3D-(3,5/4)-trihydroxycyclohexane-1,2-dione acylhydrolase (Decyclizing)
Amino acid sequence: MNSTLRLTTAQALVRYLAAQQTPDGEPLFGGVFAIFGHGNVAGIGEALYAHRETLPTYRAHNEQAMAHAAIAYAKAHFRRRMMAVTTSIGPGATNLVTAAALAHVNRLPVLLLPGDVFVSRAPDPVLQQVEDFADGGISANDALKPVSRYFDRIVHPAQLLTALPRAMRVLTDAALCGPVTLALPQDVQAMAYDYPASFFEPRVASFHTPSPIDEEIANAAAALRAAKKPLLVSGGGVLYGLATDALRSFAERHGIPVAETQAGKSALAWDHPLNLGGIGVTGSDAANELAHEADCVLAVGTRLQDFTTGSNTLFTQARLVGINANAFDALKQGALSVEADARLALDALSAALDDWRASPPWTARAHELADNWRATVDQVTNASQDDNTLPREADVIGAVRRSSAQSAAHDVVVCAAGTLPADLQKLWRTSTPGGYHVEYGYSCMGYEIAGGLGAKLARPASEVIVIVGDGSYLMMNSELATSVMLGAKLIVVLLDNRGYGCINRLQQACGGAPFNNLIDDCRQGPEGAPAIDFAMHARSLGASAEHVANIDELEAAMQRARASTRSYLISIDTDPARPTEEGGWWWEVAVPEVSSREAVRSARANYEHEITARSKRTKE
């Protein structure tokens, strides 16, 4: 006779999560971030308390931020470990929507467990309940459906027996991977049921990755053999597929240069002779020059967003071969698709190519351009400083990099939005897979500090350096206090350019007047805008902090921050008007067709000229 355990829905859920293991014998779930409220405190809260030693519960200060931290944890583990997040109903649940979208776009696993309204509807409507006048079955959690890879509302305890295995499959499947939402009505959380004891036996997660099909590999090999100027674009799937060694071996064996997407950066060491650096709108001159000349582009593990493809203008002249675990991504831009895991596909493709190599002059040119770009990076990040000029992002990045001379292999840089991801993709150097942790699929302001917390929980031995602008910091900084509470030390380098400098430049590039981006250009009351002391603010959250006046002081402060055992913020004033001019590519941003302003009309004319010129080159 099969034995059973009588548990509440919440107890069964938590016990099941605690039983999941990685192939290495570690808990699959590194913990649960929780902000309790009505709808989850009595059910899941009690269940988590019982398992607090085997499935740690972490308290945060903002639901969106704690979900960002959970997502960053999974990203830092290359999707081999993950976390769950639980909230109350109402605003706690809807605060998860932005984070769920971020995980969805970036193909990263996170288990969302928002509380929900009573299934019985006996006390209907409850506090914080969203009522749909046409559908009584709608709750706030339905907002999570479009941004979840799998969504289920648990309306009976037995439903866990099917919902949880389905959830685990999505979370551990390379093609399906993304956010899973299990909405948990508060009365169902408290209901008891006789569950099979076998349901809670320890289980080793199986990470599902599709193997390549011989025919698709043969077609890809034929496309490469016909090429004289091939280029490999390394995306996040190379890291998540644990394919960094396969990538290096493939590039070396076949003499194919490699360009990196934001998610794929760090898959190949920065100083590898075939590493051209970042590609696309925020990429290097070397990568973009060869991408625009390549006759075959092998896109591995990338979703080919517009920053990678230069709004679909960068390698339109090339035959595109897409290697991706997800067919949706592999087929983009009419690619010849290989629907497979990056490591398995690269190994199979290399075997099919045998001793074939790219044209020697092409490989030699790649070496030369890569060397030239590295020299450019040295020059840009080590520029002499003018005492009368505010530093720019490149100066700060150079100073932070120089401070890591003895520990670069253990540094993880975290960023997400604004100008900094562009400059970091061009200028940051790392030889460690995962040493570059930039969320640029959703480019979500506010991810930075929360993401740094998640990365630190995943890699406690690493120095996690969050580089963030004042705009993103003001948008979401609460998890700096959480990092202090947990002893998860971060170094936060805050660049204060008094507003949204990146969008201010884009606004003017499109003919717009400076408006509502930099603080000086915003509507203000009679006392004007506040002069924000970011160091004082960080100290109020429990961190150590200081403000520095120049790059020399920043370098010295970085040494103090590295020596500290507590989260440490360093703020520095920077110039909002001076981006890194080197590198880059065209990005399509629509300019108004009609305007009373001459600057906008001129920008529109330039926009139309670019569209026509690039369309003509594509047809040629």
In short: The domain at 386-573 is CATH 3.40.50.970 (Rossmann fold). The chain has a mean pLDDT of 95. The radius of gyration is 25 Å.
